[in-house]
Structures are given as C-alpha cells and as structure tokens.
Amino acid sequence: MLLITCPVCGAVGDESEFHCGGEAHVKRPASSKPGNVSDESQYEYLYVRNNPRGPHREMWQCVRGCGKWFNAMRDTLSLQFLAFYKIGDPIPPLPGKKSATKTRTPIQGRRK
Amino acid sequence: MSHKSSFMSKKAVDRTISGDNTFTHRLKCTYTRKNIMQRFSIFSLARNALSYHKNWQEHWRSPEPKPEYDVIIIGAGGHGLATAYYLAKEHGITNVCILDKGWLGGGNTGRNTTIIRSNYLQDESAAIYELSRSLYEGLSRELNYNIMFSPRGLINVCATEHEMRAFQRHAYANKLAGIETRMITPAEIKKMVPIIETGKNARYPILGGLYQPRGGVARHDAVAWGYARGADNLGVDIIQNCAVTGILQRRGRVVGVKTPKGEIKAKKVAIVTAGNTTMLTDMAGFKMPIESLGLQALVSEPIKPIIDVVVMAGTVHGYVSQSDKGELVIGGGADPYNNYAQRGGITSWEHTVRALVEIFPVFSRLNMMRHWGGIVDMTGDRSPIIGLTPVKGLFVNCGWGTGGFKAIPGSGFVFADTIANGRPHPIAAPFNMDRFREGRLIDESAAAAVAH
User: Fold this and answer.
1) Is the pTM of this model over 0.90?
2) Where do the domains of chain B lie, and which CATH numbers do they carry?
3) Pairwise CB contact (< 8 Å): B337 & A20
4) pLDDT value at position A80?
5) Do A15 and B292 touch (CB under 8 A)?
6) Within 10 A of B46 (CB to CB), how many other CB atoms are there?
7) Handedness of CA B6, B12, B17, B23 (dihedral sign)
8) Would you list which residues of chain B are within 8 Å, Cβ to Cβ, of chain A?
C-alpha cells in the first residue's frame, strides 16, 4: 500500500485516497499548423510512455482532499516515493543524475 | 511425440529409434539414456512405484549454452516455452535456446488465476483466443503431460443493464465467430452456482450472465512444465538463471545476445518477457507502447467443493474459481500505477474481496491464505503485440495484459510460425505494432469481458 502526501494541502493518506494519472511531464505535440504534427509524435504522445524499472515521475490527484493534481517521483521497483512536488515546481532530478531535465522535451529527451 | 525428418544428428536418430515402444526397449532407454523422454502412462507409473518413484527422469536438461543457435527466445514463461515447442514440432527448427533470468514459469505463468476463455468481442481477438482455447482441449495428450485442463464452464455475471447489453453483444459476436457462448438467466446461474446471491435486495443484483460452457481452468505450472519437457525432448536448450544484458546488432540486424555466460549468436531473437518487455526493447533501441503494471491475486484456505464453474464479475472487479486442492482462487483488477514489484498489496484485494462477499455471502468467514502480484504488460488497447520489430530478425510477443495465460498455446503456435517464416501468421498479423500509429486498435479495454 502506497502512503502519499499531497504537496498542495498536506493531506496524508494511502493510495485509495488518491488517483494516479500516469507519467508526468508528457507534452502534447503542438504547432500553429496542426498538419505539421507528425504521425510519429502524435503516436508517441498518445501511446508511448517511459516505463522505467526505478525512479519514475508521475501525476497524482488528491481525490479525497483538495482535489488538486500534483507530481511525484516514485521508484517502481521498491514502490517508495522519492519526492512530491506541485505542478509548475522545478522537476527534481532522477537519483544519480546531476541536474533536472527542464529544457528537454519530455518524451524524446528522456528516452535514450 | 512425433519426430520430424529434419532430425539428422546421431542423437536425433537415437531418439527416433526410441519411438519403438516395446517394453524392454523402453526400460533400457529409461535407465541408460538421459536424453530420451520417459512417457507418462499407467504402466510407467506402476513401474516407477516399484522403485519407490526414485528413478523418474528429470523433465528437462540443464545444458550450457552453445555459441550459436538458429533462434534465441528470451523468456521461459508459458509463451516462450510454447513458442519453442511449436518451432521444433511444427517447423522442424530445433537448434533453439530459451534464456531466462530466473527459473522457467516463475513469472506470470506461475502467478495467474489460470482462467481460460475466448468470449472476446473483436474478431481478431476471438480468432487467437479461440485457437488457444481449442489447443488447450488436446494439450495434455499432445504433451503427454497432465495440464489438468478443466473446461468446467465460465460465467460472466452482469450486475447492471449496461453490462447485460454489452454481454448480449458479446454473445452475438461470439456466435458469428463460431465460439460457443450464450446468455443465461439468473435462475440458470443460481442453479449452477447455488451460493451466489441473486435476491432482490442484493448489493449487486445478478441480472443474467454470459456463459461459455467450454471455458475453464488449467494447472498453470503444468502448462509451463509440459511445454518445457516437450521442447527439451525435441532438442531445445532451456537455460535458466541466465539474464540477457544486451541485444547485439549489426547494420540494423540482430546477430545475438549478451549474457553473463558470454555472447550467444543467432540470426533470429524473440522477446517474450511479459512485464519486462520494455527493458529488452530499450536494449534493442526502440520504444514500445507498453507500461508495466502490477496485477494481484489471492487464495483462500482449502475447503470442500463449493463452486464448480468460474464466475467473473466485471463491474465489481472480481473473479473466482475453486482449485482442485479446494482453495478459492481470486483475482481482481490491476493496480493503476507503474509497478515492477512482484508482490501483493492491500488496496487491490480489499476492493475485490469487498465485492465478492456481497456476491457470495458464504465466503465472508473464509480465511485468506496468500496473496501475491505479477507484473503485466499493458498496451493502449489491452490487446497483445505479436510480430516483427524495427530491428531485422528481432521478434516480439508481449502486451497480453491481464489475460496471457489463456493465450499460451495459441500465442506460441502463431508466434512460432511468425519466427519460422519471417512474416506474421495470419492470425497474428492484426496484432502488429503499427496498429497504434495507424489508429487501427483492437479495442478490448472498453469491450473486455472484465474490467482490465
């Protein structure tokens, strides 16, 4: 059972009181001309996600508390939360990496 | 067990000779040669009883890997073992090895709730799952290994009007696909499952159900062991405790794999590693539309026979059957977050059990004995991905989500054909990776018989 702290309202609860929204920082491919969005980037936006065995950044919603969405970093192998942070806060770096990955586009940038 | 004429090595010729089933010859074979499969029969059982069952042969060898194979299969679960078995049996490709980082059948094959059904809505799904279910029918005989297939009947009970309409649609689709299912009334359900709560004041009223008479269960470990034994007998090397750490490529073609036991070469490599598919495809350098989620199950203490069909309740995320040992085997929905931890959690089974005691009030005082988790591949449309990849010679069979066990024979059959011929088998063809790019989904998430 996951124990979660909402960084917005401070509520603490187990996973049944929160809702997981999947990977965080997924960016919709945008263009002033929708025709410029390639099939490939649309496909990646819709279906392809990071699926790491280890630290993973994801969205959660504080369903039984303030109702707000927030982000969390969680290890998918130990199930331990490593960080909770609000939407718009600086993205915490993955353990073992030096700096946050603010400038890169979420999907293409982080995937190697 | 039939033998292909392509067996031409000395070992193989010896094996063919062993097909001579005279008693003395069998005895001689049994005790002098390790690589000839002892067949199970009432006679071999009696014979081994005389020696206190101390002379049974091992089911499969534990060979060291050769430097090169025709095909390498990564993952010794049900799907991987079935693939190797059909490659050897149907296509005569016996220079095959299966690598597994753990022990064979130790992943989802040993963790599922063993349900077998084919009452899917979409034509593509119906084709592959019904192929699989029909192969299960004769599998014990085919493998000379009792997989304890029990087509005891399977009911998807409906608790809402929406579900009734959805399952009526399933029944019509199944009829068109030639799969035997039909809608049944609450009275019929009550007759088959006397312990079910069908009263007017039930928390989850039973309005009807979709019944598949030839659905059922099988012994999950035996399926893996039977295929492993059959494949090994045909010459396939099963190498356990040998993780693949890299996929070797040259000019966009796969040439082998890297393991702690050294590099192993092969022109064809197949990834069949449910739960860890993206770990392998990341090594190969391409992305898969897959996320790994945890799926949990639990069993009760063993009790006397109380329910002799499989009951699935989609609305409340619960399904139950009784094993031959008497335990109630219970499963629920998948945890809604990425997960590689193969262990159970409280939230998921609390949700399932809470609903099941409303449907089966008699279960309320049962003790639950064990709960556990397996890691499943989830695709966007909850249908598998079978076929070719951007890397030439590299094949993938994954994305079975929460329902891979029922598909083992069919999946292995079509995947072996796909690998042998280098093109998708007609039944596997719709399940290619490009369907997500093309928007040609095989949507079983909205259409599924249970909530995935």
Assistant:
1) no
2) 1-56 (no CATH), 57-110+221-289+389-438 (3.50.50.60), 118-220+291-379 (3.30.9.10)
3) yes
4) 94
5) no
6) 9
7) negative
8) 276, 278-279, 287-292, 336-341, 345-347, 351, 379-380, 436-437
